[in-house]
Each structure stands twice: as C-alpha cells, then as structure tokens.
Amino acid sequence: RRIEGIIKLFSLAGATVTVVAGDKATRKNVEGETEGSYCVHHLDEIPARSASAVKRLYRYLSYGHETVKWLEAHRNEVDAVIMFGGYSPYASKLLRWAEKRSCPLMVDVVEWFDPSHLRGGWGGPIHIRNELALRHYFVRIHNIIAISGFLEEYYQRRGCRVVRIPPVFDMNEVPFRTTPSESGGTVALAYAGSPGKKDILDSLMEAMIAVNRETVRV
Question: Each residue of 189-217: pLDDT tens digit?
C-alpha cells in the first residue's frame, strides 16, 4: 500500500514509474508486467525462506547487485531512483551507482525499530544493519521521503532535504466493505496487535471518539 501510494502521487505529477522489485515473480512470463499505471520487474534478489544459512548470507551481502545491474542497463531511461527498504547492503550499492551516474537518489523512510523489538536486540545483525542505514547511508543519500514527523525532524536535523508524505490511499480503490450491525447500527471493530510497542492507539481512539460524535457509532 505504501509503495502504491507513492507511485500514485508520482504518476499524478506526470512521472512514468517502473518498480524494480527484489522478490521472485510468482508467475511465469511476468517480466515487465503492467500493474495499473506502472511496470514491475522481479529480480529475485531476496532469498527464499527455505534457503540454507550460507545462501541467505550470500544473498544478504550481495543484496542490491541485481538492482544495480538493471539500473545500469537502463541508465539512459532513468531520471531518478526512489529506494524503499533494503537497508545498509542495498543502500550502499545504490548510493555508489547514483553517485557514479549523477542520478538523483531518494529513500522512503517508513520505520525506525526499537532494538528490543528486533531479533538479537542491540547487538543483533538486524539492529546493526538498520542503524547503519538510518544514521549513515540514508543521511548520505540526503533526499528523504519521511512517513512521520519523527523521521522528518530527525533527517532535517541531519541536514537532509526532507518531504513528509503520510500513508496515502486512493479511496476509490479501497471501498468501505462493512455494514453496521443490526444492534443499534453500531460498527464493531476488533484490534489484534501489540499496543504500546509499535502500535500506539491514542490517535485511533481519538478518531473513533470524533466519529462517534457524528452519525456513525463505533
């Protein structure tokens, strides 16, 4: 949803968008397939869940290599690159390519995990990878799309060019598909997750209170 929202915004601004995905195509003959207003190329960089530890480590260290190969082959067609995810190995390779080709590179930053929420904690490889990307490589990339005020303020303090774009949805494509229950016309919602860690429910509760003041009962 996040990527599609960003694609929609750039498409409305007149850009031609191509998605270069690190996953493996789930169907045959889908190279360059069209999904709505954009094309998708699957590069099979992400290791399968069933892959051995050695293969997963190799894929991790080489992550971004296939993307750079694709960009190099299409360099005359690319005006700018937006990076989403990948973190330090991926970011380092894309940054070197962008600097070599003088191609504008942006990164869409959508999360900053607390180390206690990651496998391995403070000293784990996931936390180290994340911190290296968030504090070093993304700052060097310099052009930041931030999903939140927290991330916007952090990268502004680091001297980056930042634009904040919250989650964007095309409501014509996301219809409201539920109906109020028969008991008093109330919409009943269920939440599953971990409030107080990643999911802070204050804003959601405030929104539902505001809705309750209008015509829809939640």
Answer: 888 877 766 677 888 888 888 888 776 77
